[in-house]
Amino acid sequence: MAQVKVSILGDSYSTFENWIPEGNEPWYGPAIGNDVKQVEDTWWFRLIEDNGLQLEKNDSWSGATISYTGYGGEDYSPRSFITRADRLGDNPDIIFVFGGTNDAWAGAPIGEFNGTDLYSVRPAIRELFRRLRANYPDALTVAIINTELTPQVESSLLTIAAEEDVPVVRLTAIDKQSGHPSIHGMSQIAAQTWKATAPLLYEKLRNR
Questions:
Q1: What is the mean pLDDT of residues 130-142?
Q2: What is the DSSP string of 93-161?
Q3: Averaged over 133-149, what is the pLDDT?
Q4: Inter-residue contact 156 to 65 (CB < 8 Å)
Q5: CA-CA distance, 3 to 84, in Å (whole number)?
Q6: Residue 50 and residue 187: Cα distance in Å, rounded?
Q7: Which residues are registered as beta bridge partners of 94?
Q8: Which of 137, 10, 116 lies closest to 65 in space, CA to CA?
């Protein structure tokens, strides 16, 4: 497992100051109003460290939406998950996609399941999964679904992930402070994500 490379495509939940690409906005860091003060307490660092994996790339951006629509209807395409779908390293073995929270909070248009407007949530989710498959055909892509999403965003993620053959981790009962995971919440995310993902990853490694 020490050779398994992990990449993260996320929003504020997966950021930490100085651990994301320059220009991306962090939310987590020593000065925030949350008890997560060090990178070792983040869900992704704990998952990687506890299970002997290695970090390939963390391209997370606070406030990022999967779609191109952000808060107040602003154009968020520069920070969109879709725009960053080719920035996840050379050859990750597994890609964790942890998004949809800001689409729900910003009230982005839902759109149609078979639509093409990337300013809407459903077409954007499908496009994201397809771009990840095209860019990283050998990687296992896993979608992590936050708690407390709007029903439309949650059901859209679940439906499209199933149609695009992307396994999901559906989080439950995550402890949060200021709408973001606390230290305890981070440990819950790490544990729930690894429990759901480990069998898939072992199967992938056996079939290499």
A1: 97
A2: SEEEEE--HHHHHHT-----TT---TTSHHHHHHHHHHHHHHH-TTSEEEEEE-SS--HHHHHHHHHHH
A3: 97
A4: no
A5: 24
A6: 11
A7: 6, 140
A8: 10
Count, residues in the chain: 208
Q: CA triplet 138, 158, 140: central angle to 5 degrees?
A: 15
**List of E strands, 40-90:** 54-60
Could you tell me the two tokens for 77? 């395409």
Closest by Cα among 177, 8, 140, 152 to 67? 152
Between CA 141 and CA 139, with CA 190 as vertex, the angle to 5 degrees is 15
Q: What is the mean pLDDT of residues 117-129?
A: 98
Nearest-angstrom CA–CA distance, 55 and 93: 10
| Residue pair 97/83 in contact by the 8 Å Cβ criterion | no
pLDDT in tens, 27-85: 999 888 799 999 999 999 999 999 999 999 999 999 999 999 999 999 999 999 999 99
